[in-house]
Amino acid sequence: MRVKKRGMTASLLWGVLALGVGAAAGAFAMVDVVGAKVHRAQAVNEARSIADMADNVGTWASTYKGVWIKDDGLTAKGVDIGSRIDTQRYKQSSEETDPHGVFDTYHRKNPALIQRELSDVIQKSDSRGKFRLTSDKYMNPVNAPDGFDLRAMQALRQNGQREFYEIKSGEMRYARRLVAKDSCMNCHDTPDKAPSTIARLYPGPQGYGYVKGDLAGIISVRVPYVYDRSVVLDNL
Q1: Over the stretch 68-109, which tens digit does the pLDDT of each residue have?
Q2: pTM (2 decimals)?
Q3: Is the pLDDT of residue 19 over 70?
Q4: 108: Cβ–Cβ under 8 A, 6 or more apart, which residues?
Q5: Which among 66, 141, 127, 71 has a CA at the least distance from the CA of 103?
Q6: Higher-confidence position of 18 and 90
Q7: Which residue has the higher pLDDT, 13 or 146?
Q8: Which is nearest to 115 in space by CA: 31, 217, 13?
């Protein structure tokens, strides 16, 4: 009788132990799942912040129909004015009565050029996240989309959503849709409607044919993505 009770007690203890181990394993798995979701959400938010910054810079530049850069001899000091869509020369106010007076030269950069140059600066910086603007109707070959960019644009056109992302090889790739606005149509409608500077550089047909209100391209963002479950467990 005592042997039977001992057997029942041992079985009960093993059962309780098994339940405890199972519960612990389940809790660990749950923590791992939740931790992974939180980490992914943080990476998405980081990518969104970078896209917001790029988007807001474009909106700011669009408000003023681009930005004028004064050419005051900086190129001679190694600073390249870079691409521009227009150039204007204005006589200095103090010399208005002199037909041979000194002129100031200004170059206008449109919103996309400003965003691209900002992207170039960030690409060379130590910033964790990087971004660039791209489209499947690109003008400059430097801005050509890669495989992720093409998949993102296809998905965004199909589902109508604002964003798309993938995680692969220790990196999150994030895409934010860009809609063709009036400021885009100035250069991307048809070659004959584009500024002469743009039409000479990019005679087409690549880079034209945008439709106002349709997806014109994406802000393509990269952020590092390495999930370490030990960090989650250390914070329990």
Answers
A1: 888 877 666 666 777 777 787 777 666 555 666 677 888 888
A2: 0.77
A3: no
A4: 66, 67, 68, 69, 84, 85, 86, 87, 88
A5: 71
A6: 90
A7: 146
A8: 217
Q: Token pair 């370490």 is at which residue?
A: 228
Render the chain in DSSP notation, one character per residue. Answer: -HHHHHHHHHHHHHHHHHHHHHHHHHHHHHHHHHHHHHHHHHHHHHHHHHHHHHHHHHHHHHHTTSEEEEESSGGGGT------SEEEEEE-GGGTT-TT--EEEEEEE-HHHHHHHHHHHHHTS--S-EEEEE-TT-SSGGG---HHHHHHHHHHHHH--SEEEEEETTEEEEEEEEE--HHHHHHHS-GGGS-HHHHHH--SSTT----TTSEEEEEEEEEE----HHHHHHT-
Quick one: pLDDT at residue 36? Answer: 76
Nearest-angstrom CA–CA distance, 136 and 85: 21
Average pLDDT score, the chain: 82
Band of pLDDT at residue 4, cut at 50, 70 and 90: low
For residue 236, the model assigns a pLDDT of: 47
Using alpha carbons only, what angle is made at residue 187 by residues 76 and 125, rounded to the nearest 5 degrees? Answer: 50
Residue 100 pLDDT: 62
Residue 214 neighbours by CB under 8 Å, 6+ apart? 179, 180
Using the structure block, give the residue that is written with the tokens 């007076």: 101
Instruction: Work out whether strand 130-134 and strand 215-224 pair parallel, antiparallel, or are unpaired.
Output: antiparallel
Residue 147 CA, chain-centre distance (Å), reads: 15
Whole-angstrom CA distances from 212 to 68, 133, 182 are: 25, 18, 7
